[in-house]
Design a protein that fits this description.
The chain has one helix spanning 10-13; strands at residues 18-19, 26-27, 34-35, 40-42, 46-47, 53-54, 58-66, 72-80. It is mainly beta.
């Protein structure tokens, strides 16, 4: 009898997951960048594991690099604003 109480139904939950910002977008500290995503990793000024959050105010940019298994991963970074 497990179920969600007062939450979003599983039918619409996939709509809330994913990336929430685009490259070049200005964000404030504490803004959620992704939800429940394994294809994005944290870079500079980003905190979290599966849900990534901005650690400072600034502009979002993406970089790509290979990990230890030669797989290309996407890093989400924040360029701090002055």
């Amino acid at each position: 009898m497990g179920g969600r109480v007062g939450g979003i139904s599983s039918k619409y939950y996939c709509e809330t997951a994913g990336i929430k910002v685009s490259g070049g977008q200005k964000v404030k500290s504490g803004t959620i960048l992704t939800r429940q995503g394994d294809q994005w990793k944290r870079g500079l000024n980003v905190i979290g594991r599966s849900s990534l959050t901005a650690a400072c105010d600034g502009e979002v940019y993406f970089t790509r690099r290979k990990n230890g298994y030669n797989k290309v991963i996407t890093l989400i970074n924040i360029k701090p604003s002055n």
